[in-house]
Amino acid sequence: MARVGFKMQLLKGNEEEYKKRHDAIWPELQELLKKSGISNYVIYLDAPTGVLFASMDVSDNHTTAENRHHPVMKKWWDFMGDIMVTNPDRSPVALPLKEVFFLP
Predict the structure, then answer these.
(1) Is the pTM of this model over 0.90?
(2) Three-state SS string across the chain, please?
(3) What residues are labeled active site?
């Protein structure tokens, strides 16, 4: 098991909409994430800056790299693309973060 952290950028004024959409996350997306080896996935918002900090655990045999090709993931990216900074393929710009401390 490994921990992964990254940050993304929410477009200003979309804080409530971002939360609303995640409160109603699609069951098929949840299933895809879990099947690919993701657990303990949490996203935090720094409201003044719109920076989203995400953290997740990934299993040793995770298949998360394949998720970007899955139709459900692409549909989610399209759904979220109007409120976040995205790449040309509509995936969120996600900048990896280096873990510097962990208290088990």
Answers:
(1) yes
(2) CEEEEEEEEECCCCHHHHHHHHHCCCHHHHHHHHHCCEEEEEEEEECCCCEEEEEEEECCCCCHHHHHHCHHHHHHHHHHCCCECECCCCCECCEEECCCCCCC
(3) 22
